[in-house]
Design goal:
Blueprint: E1 12-16, H1 20-31, E2 35-40, H2 48-64, E3 68-71, H3 76-83, H4 94-114, E4 118-121, H5 131-145, E5 148-149, H6 159-170
Parallel strand pairs: 1-2, 1-4, 2-3, 4-5
Helix pairs in contact: 1-2, 1-6, 3-4, 4-5
Bound molecules: iron/sulfur cluster.
Iron/sulfur cluster (SF4) binds at residues 44, 91, 95-96, 99-100, 178-180, 182-183.
Length: 186
Amino acid sequence: MKLLSDVPEGESVLLHICCAPDATYGVPAMQERFRVTGFFFNPNLHPGEEHARRLQATRQVQEYFPFALEVEEGGEKEWEDAVRGLEGEPEKGRRCEACIRLRLRRTAEKAKSMGISAFCTVLTVSPKKDASMVNRIGREEGKRAGILFIEADMKKNNGFLNSINVSKMLGIYRQKYCGCRYSTRP
Ligand code: SF4
């Protein structure tokens, strides 16, 4: 297990960004120790306008906390394939595991292709995410790709509260559902 504090300061890290509000906490928290490049890859987002909205809000965060941002489009078919048969699962269940795995696998592969030796995600800022699941998937995908996954539970130390406050201060879009069409159900 590699926690934030175990990894040498100044390391380059590819940080998966699922949405702007989570990035308002996750990006500066990681920038305190590392050289951060953001990675926006979220083929789970539905409808397409939602993807555009969240990306645009992420660019607003990028202006405020300057960082390099890689954006990867596509992946929708892979996502549909990954969650097929899991449509009725509750949040934090097996559909979410498949969805998070797809995104972290791509992040690990991207980091490797860029010569970046570590990756992480801001997904754990949300109290709706099971940090132990996210970290387990990250470890597994890091092992698979042969690079380091930095484990974290970013909702701790008021991370979630901080994300709400900074998002309000910046006036950025805060979504009301996780992202896929199944998470829009009442
Ligand atoms: S609820 Fe969220 S994490 Fe789960 S499958 Fe949908 S978008 Fe992915």
